[in-house]
Amino acid sequence: MIVSSVPASPSGGVPASLPGGVSASSPAPPPGPASVSAPVPGPVPRADRPCVGELRLSAFAAHRRARFPLAPLTLFAGPSGCGKTSALRAYEALARLGGGAELGEVFPDPAAWVPEGSRPDAQARRGFRIGCTAHGPEGPVRLDVAVQAEPDLRVVGERLSGGDGRVLLETALRDPGRRTVQAAWHTAGATPVTRAPLPDDRLGTPLLPLRVAGKTDGQRQVLAAAEQMVVALRSVYACDPQPERMRTPVPAGAGRLLRGCDNLADVVARTRGECARRHSLFVEAVRAGCAGPVADVVAEPVGGGRVRAVLERGDGVRTGFERLGDGELRYAGLALVLLTGPGVLEVDAAGEVPPALQTLTVLADGFDRGLDPRQRAGLLDLAARMCARGHIRLAGAVSDASWARGQGAARVVDLVP
After folding, report:
1. What is the pLDDT of residues 222-277, one digit of tens each?
2. Tens digits of per-residue pLDDT, 159-203?
3. What domains, with CATH codes, occur in the chain?
């Protein structure tokens, strides 16, 4: 199945003709196609639990006209420079923007994401385009965004479309001298469309509940689609365990796992005291991925209000995490992420939505980095079991997915430089 080099359809991607769109042209041809290995049927997303089912990178870093269908467990595979990390970065960026973050916070170095070789237009503007589709009660809802990176960072075009193809929100930069975009959203009342200015430093979709009254059927459709997109994007946890940081004692008391798993010891202290079942599953996973016997994983006080993570080997023998190998530490960090949830991970969860209706998406760059074959297989099995429950999805980047093919769990997306 070809998932890149797909021209944007009239109802999909932000087309080149989008008002306020930015130039992303290049004299070079599009990159080689990315392919998906035989799709695994997997569980169908629950209609009442919004999730992102497709990522679109119309013009972003190394990607052009790329569309990536996302399964509950998706692995982006390929050599260095093929765009695995940038695909995950685009997903994380959409998640943060969907949560209301400012553009400058999400893209501190925006020029780095402009496709190489892109030529500026007559106004010296260059930029990039990204988007996604969220599945849920409203059917497939599409969001596409055009961002100007140079000379000034700003959103210059946004389109939110419903499952029936109707454009529910569209924004465009009309006056470059003002820090606003002109927005138009579906009303279907006495006035078919409502127009108003919105700021150009953040997405308009998460702002709609503050602007749309919900008095007409059209307004209610706009609000429902915007809510589905925001809920699908909000609970995203980008994770890349850093072994050198995990070996150092950390202050106790925070109990929220950082993206580098620096404070794993503190989180172990919390989960061990709060949920015996979850902790026993974590110990079981660590036992499968670490050398030697493992009876328990504990947080040991070291003075000064700090703790360190320790493996209890049995018969009073203990091994501090500072003595473990990089692969063992990365394995333990990723296992803990998969076995916890928004209440433990440092994520911006949608607090106004019941947890049962949320899906946590884990973005794991270097999912297989430093792992031996036994650890890779064990981590993939754990990820598959957790994703099958429906409360968690995972998109990871691996250098070589040959070990994951035929496992019946992951959809592999092969990227070509």
Report:
1. 999 999 999 999 889 999 999 999 999 999 987 789 999 999 999 999 999 888 99
2. 999 988 899 999 999 998 899 999 999 998 778 889 999 999 999
3. 44-235 (3.40.50), 241-347 (no CATH)
Token representation of residue 126: 């260059």
- Reported as type and span, the H/E element at residue 278 is helix 276-289
User: Per residue, what are the HEC states of 398-417?
Assistant: ECCCCCCCCCCCCEEEECCC
Retrieve residue 62's tokens.
């190394």
Under DSSP, the state recorded for 115 is P
Long-range contacts of 80-83 (CB under 8 A, 24+ apart): 80/399, 81/417, 82/415, 82/416, 82/417, 83/31, 83/415, 83/417
Name the residue among 79, 142, 147 with its Cα closest to residue 109: 147
- 344-388 pLDDT, tens digit per residue, is 886 665 555 555 556 899 999 999 999 999 999 999 999 999 999
Amino acid at site 87:
A
Structure tokens at 268: 């172990």
Residue with tokens 């109707």: 166
CB 299 within 8 A of CB 389: no
Of all helices (H) and strands (E), which one includes residue 362?
strand 360-364
Residue 71 in tokens: 């399964």
